[in-house]
Design goal:
Length: about 140
């Protein structure tokens, strides 16, 4: 969350500086995981806001979720089949979030939260697998002559 000072100026708090540094120094796969975590977080915030009848907060949290989905859609490389599948998933989630926003429907948010968590967990697992594949083997290199 950005903190604004007087006359529309951004305050340079240690937390804001930390967040900015984290984003700037992260690898693309880490940024993707951060976005998935954000998607999950904003959907959950919308659910809590609906519980509290804070419909303005619910709306803003759903809009933030939809913005993340647009970011995902815009970064897909459509030469891969999986990208076409993800595009369909993101479009479905976006449509359902719009519906949830209009109706302030927690059941729809719960459905989309399940998809978001599944995508996030799958991405995290893929990162672990890729990291292990790129890790040098601890086995000694033995040759036979």
């Amino acid at each position: 969350m950005l903190i604004w000072g007087g006359k529309g100026m951004l305050l340079n708090t240690p937390y804001n500086q930390y967040k900015e540094n984290t984003v700037v120094t992260s690898r693309p796969e880490e940024l993707t995981l951060m976005l998935y975590n954000g998607l999950v977080k904003f959907i959950m915030q919308a659910q809590l806001a609906i519980d509290k009848h804070d419909f303005e907060k619910a709306h803003s949290s759903i809009v933030r979720s939809k913005e993340i989905l647009i970011c995902f859609e815009n970064t897909l490389d459509m030469k891969y089949d999986v990208s076409k599948d993800l595009l369909g998933m993101y479009e479905y989630m976006y449509k359902r979030l719009t519906e949830a926003n209009v109706k302030k429907d927690k059941a729809i948010l719960e459905e989309i939260l399940g998809f978001a968590k599944g995508l996030r967990d799958t991405w995290a697992q893929a990162m672990k697998i890729a990291k292990n594949k790129n890790k040098p083997s601890s086995q000694p290199y033995i040759t036979t002559a």
